[in-house]
């Protein structure tokens, strides 16, 4: 298994965020996480990225329990896991070339990594990753001069450059227009398939999830509500997942013109 959670729980600030999550993904498998805002999708991905440590249960990533290995081994494991964030954490003054180069720093020794940060020697590979997210012309641009969608695509290029065995993506297309969102999800799926990488992506768009992922995992209130092949995710299943998730009830539809006239009479 590439990723295995056994009854994993997470508490943050004294609150239960995830409860008894059991989930496994085989190497090369692709799955989408869907669910209402605040359900726990990001937290689940951050657990898989080893950014959080579970309170209970055990997890195995690429053959190791990250919390039972040495710090050095953990660093090696992290270099094989790529995380795409909703808002890419790019230092403002950093140039795009360095932000993408950072994808491979974990795979290098200390001195090489430091040198890459100043003068990356694999600009051709960096350019190739940027080309794939249509940002080749931004190679030397400063990150704080990019739009939100461009920053998100730099975060994706960084993970393409990293070539990890496990790709985790938290709403990777939140800042992109519909056509770019579609192209980007297809790119991630193709990249993962070509490298036999495992891909777990959280998406607000159920439509995109159903269009591209064979397996759909519904999360609500910190628990897995369903884990189904996409063919079994019927409208009723989706409605139950998002039930009650509205800022307010929709207004009564306006009365047809004829009856409004009736009222005036
Ligand atoms: N650091 C934290 N401390 C305390 N509570 C947190 C923390 N981070 C997240 N939460 C809470 O955990 C719950 C799950 O949040 P999470 O970001 O995982 O949800 P999500 O499904 O990704 O939501 P969205 O779709 O809005 O991004 C939320 O109720 C959130 O308020």
Automatic annotation (TrEMBL):
<keyword id="KW-0813">Transport</keyword>
<keyword id="KW-0472">Membrane</keyword>
<keyword id="KW-0067">ATP-binding</keyword>
<dbReference type="InterPro" id="IPR003439">
    <property type="entry name" value="ABC_transporter-like_ATP-bd"/>
</dbReference>
<keyword id="KW-0547">Nucleotide-binding</keyword>
<keyword id="KW-1278">Translocase</keyword>
<feature type="domain" description="ABC transporter">
    <location>
        <begin position="3"/>
        <end position="246"/>
    </location>
</feature>
<dbReference type="Pfam" id="PF00005">
    <property type="entry name" value="ABC_tran"/>
</dbReference>
<protein>
    <submittedName>
        <fullName>Phosphonate transport system ATP-binding protein</fullName>
    </submittedName>
</protein>
<keyword id="KW-1003">Cell membrane</keyword>
<dbReference type="InterPro" id="IPR027417">
    <property type="entry name" value="P-loop_NTPase"/>
</dbReference>
<dbReference type="InterPro" id="IPR017871">
    <property type="entry name" value="ABC_transporter-like_CS"/>
</dbReference>
<dbReference type="InterPro" id="IPR050086">
    <property type="entry name" value="MetN_ABC_transporter-like"/>
</dbReference>
<dbReference type="GO" id="GO:0016887">
    <property type="term" value="F:ATP hydrolysis activity"/>
</dbReference>
<dbReference type="InterPro" id="IPR003593">
    <property type="entry name" value="AAA+_ATPase"/>
</dbReference>
<dbReference type="GO" id="GO:0005524">
    <property type="term" value="F:ATP binding"/>
</dbReference>
């Amino acid at each position: 298994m590439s990723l295995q959670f056994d009854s994993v729980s997470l508490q943050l600030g004294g609150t239960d965020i995830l409860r008894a999550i059991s989930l496994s993904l085989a190497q090369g498998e692709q799955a989408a996480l869907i669910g209402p805002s605040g359900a726990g999708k990001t937290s689940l991905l951050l657990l898989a990225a080893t950014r959080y440590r579970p309170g209970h249960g055990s997890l195995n990533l690429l053959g190791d329990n990250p919390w039972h290995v040495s710090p050095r081994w953990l660093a090696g494991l992290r270099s094989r896991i790529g995380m795409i964030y909703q808002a890419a954490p790019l230092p403002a003054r950093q140039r795009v070339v360095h932000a993408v180069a950072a994808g491979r720093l974990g795979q290098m020794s200390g001195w090489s990594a430091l040198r890459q940060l100043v003068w990356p020697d694999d600009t051709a590979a960096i350019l190739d990753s940027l080309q794939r997210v249509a940002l080749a012309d931004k190679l030397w641009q400063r990150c704080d001069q990019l739009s939100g969608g461009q920053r998100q695509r730099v975060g994706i290029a960084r993970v393409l450059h990293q070539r990890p065995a496990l790709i985790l993506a938290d709403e990777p297309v939140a800042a992109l227009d519909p056509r770019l969102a579609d192209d980007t999800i297809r790119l991630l799926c193709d990249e993962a398939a070509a490298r036999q990488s495992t891909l777990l992506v959280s998406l607000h768009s159920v439509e995109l999830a159903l269009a591209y992922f064979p397996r759909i995992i519904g999360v609500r209130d910190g628990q897995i509500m369903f884990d189904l092949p996409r063919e079994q995710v019927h409208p009723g299943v989706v409605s139950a997942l998002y039930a009650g998730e509205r800022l307010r009830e929709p207004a009564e539809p306006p009365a047809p013109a004829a009856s409004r006239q009736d009222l005036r009479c």
